[in-house]
Write a structure and sequence with these properties.
Layout: E1 2-6, H1 11-23, E2 27-31, E3 52-55, H2 62-72, E4 76-79, H3 86-91, H4 94-116, H5 120-125, E5 127-133, H6 158-177, E6 181-186, E7 188-190, H7 199-208, E8 213-216, E9 222-227, H8 228-241, E10 247-250, E11 255-257, H9 258-272, E12 287-290, H10 305-311, H11 319-332, H12 334-341
Helix pairs in contact: 1-8, 2-4, 4-6, 7-9, 9-11
Length: 355
């Protein structure tokens, strides 16, 4: 089978591509614009596979998307391409609307046009899987509340509003045109190859350099943490076994306050990398509380009972085991980190056609 993956050079997308190449016999058509968050070094382990075809394409480019569908003729689409950093969306929301809303619309139309040309049997088996976020649901009120597939949308940031808009488009294309779509909404991902602007890699790399570990407010925001490789397995299971028209929430069953996550990282670094930068006594001494960002939701938590009940998926990693693997990966892959930090990874764009 041929599976078209958008955003396949990003954090979650690259995990999906590595999973597909490493654990299945499918061919992957990897469509990525290679924005700042797209990193081909994250695909180095499978870069030589004849089943990995890279297409440097912007999902807002309708003509190029039509070419990709016509040339490669995929049976599945997994749509992960998105702008995803909340702080960046507050500073500059326009790119989030362009990529997440207009890009999703453009991709839906290219997929629909291609799907309509397929023989009846192939139309019936085609799937368009849209990967979204739990942030579309907004902020949970009570300490025992959980996001369910039926939770009303109440996005708080330009990022989550743009993702909510893309979710609505996908449902509309299912209802109006009959396109066989699936949606998943996931909790906070973490793991290897995560761009350093995100909480966990930022804390690890700042600590190793003796820099402050900035924590919003008092760090009491609660998130449900999902190891990225567990998420990749779930996404593959949904695109292969999910029921068109359905939504599946994917969570790690690991609710943690941000401040507790940062302390856990510091404790692991004390064990795994006790050689600290000059002047640092304990990694935890670097924790610095900063002014909270506007509209910051306090708690996200996923009820993942549906995907467990209907598809049999459960996460393999606990937060403790996943975080240990993550910290160790960053310690073992300083070249990857350094190339991101100094910007040299972006030179890959010049030679991206080679993939």
């Amino acid at each position: 089978m041929k599976i078209l993956v958008t955003g396949g050079a990003g954090f979650i997308g690259s995990a999906v591509v590595r999973h597909l190449i490493g654990n299945t016999a499918h061919t992957v058509i990897n469509v990525d614009k290679l924005t700042y968050a797209g990193n081909l070094e994250s695909l180095a382990s499978i870069g030589g596979s004849p089943r990995h075809i890279f297409e440097r394409v912007d999902i807002c480019d309708a003509a190029e998307l039509r070419r990709v569908f016509k040339q490669h003729q995929p049976q599945r689409v997994m749509h992960l391409a998105a702008e995803s950093h909340v702080d960046r969306s507050i500073d500059g929301p326009a790119e989030f609307i362009r990529t997440n809303v207009v890009g999703t619309y453009t991709l839906l139309e290219a997929a629909r046009e291609y799907w309509r040309t397929l023989p009846q049997a192939e139309r019936g088996s085609f799937r368009f899987h849209h990967i979204s976020t739990d942030e579309v649901y907004g902020d949970l009120e009570g300490p025992d509340d959980l996001f369910r597939e039926t939770t009303p949308y109440a996005p708080s940031s330009p990022y989550s509003a743009s993702k909510a808009g893309s979710d609505h488009l996908v449902r509309a294309w299912r209802r109006t045109y009959g396109l066989p779509t699936l949606i998943t909404n996931c909790s906070n991902n973490y793991g290897p190859f995560h761009f350093p602007e995100k909480l966990i890699p930022l804390m690890i790399l700042n600590a190793l350099e003796g820099k402050p570990l900035p924590v919003y407010g008092q760090g009491n925001q609660v998130r449900d943490w999902l190891y990225v490789e567990d998420h990749a397995r779930a996404l593959y299971q949904v695109v292969m076994e999910g029921v068109p028209g359905e939504t599946y929430n994917i969570g790690g069953h690991n609710e943690k306050r941000n401040i507790d996550v940062v302390h856990a990282i510091c404790e692991l670094l004390e064990e795994l990398h006790p050689q600290k930068p000059a002047g640092v006594c304990r990694y935890a001494d670097l924790i610095t509380f900063v002014a909270d960002r506007p509209g910051h939701d306090m708690r996200y938590a996923i009820d993942a009972a549906k995907i467990q009940r209907e598809l049999g998926w459960i996460p393999h990693e606990t937060f403790e085991s996943g975080l240990r693997k993550t910290v160790q990966w960053y310690l073992d892959n300083q070249d990857w980190c350094r190339h991101v930090q100094d910007g040299s990874y972006q030179r890959q764009r010049l030679g991206s056609a080679a993939l």
